[in-house]
TrEMBL record:
This is Type 1 glutamine amidotransferase domain-containing protein. Gene3D superfamilies: 3.40.50.880. Belongs to the peptidase C56 family. HSP31-like subfamily. InterPro entries: Class_I_gatase-like (IPR029062), DJ-1/PfpI (IPR002818), Prot/Nucl_acid_deglycase (IPR050325). Keywords: Glutamine amidotransferase, Lyase, Stress response. The keyword Lyase applies. Residues 26-223 form the DJ-1/PfpI domain. It comes from Flagellimonas abyssi.
Amino acid sequence: MKKVLFVLTNHEDLGDTGMKTGFWIEEFAAPYYLLKDKGIEITLASPKGGQPPIDPKSNEPDFQTPATIRFNDDKETQEILSKTIKLETVNQADYDAVFYPGGHGVVWDLAEDENSIALIEDFYNNNKPVAAVCHAPAIFKNTKNTDGTSLVNGKKVTGFTNGEEEAVQLTSVVPFLVEDMLKSNGGIYTKKADWSPYAVEDGLLITGQNPASSELVAELLLEKLK
C-alpha cells in the first residue's frame, strides 16, 4: 500500500486583520478522499501537531463541494484531523509522497518552517513527489536543490494567482504573493483564468492554482504513485 503524508498549516491569524485563517477544507478533503478511496494510506502532520485551524470562510455555503459535505459528516476523519502528528517527528523514508493543502495559513508558517523545508528537500532528493495546491506552493519559498539553487528554478509551477489574491482583497495582508515568489525563485509560472481548475506537473513537483484544482493535483499525484 502506498503512503502519502499530508502537511497542514497551524497558523490561524489572518495578518493583523483580526480575522481567522487556516487551511481550506476543499483543498484537504478533495485530495484526501480521492486518494483514500484508491487505497492510499494517509498520515496527517502539522508543525505543532494536534488540530490544525480550519479557515472559517471555507465552511461557508458558497464553498461547499461533494468532498467538503462528506468531510462535514465524517466523524472518523475529523477525529484523525484533530490529532495530526508533529512535523519534527516525521521521516520521509516512511512515505511515498507528500501533499500540502493550501489556505492562507501556509504563507505564514509552512513557508518558513525549517522542518517542512528540510522534509520537502528530503522527499525530492529521494525521488519522491511533492504536491501542493493554491497557497501551498508557498512551501517552495525557501526550499533548495543540493547546488543551492531554488527547488522550483527552471520548473513548471502554478499556485494562487495575484488576480485571485486581489479578488479576495488580501494582497496587502499576506507576507508575500505566491505567484510573485514562484517567479522570483526562477519557477516557470503559468496559470489559467482566475478560479479555473489548473494543475501542472514537472518531474517530482505537482502544483495546482486554486481550490478548484485540488482534485486535479491529487489525480496527477495518484498517477505518479503508480
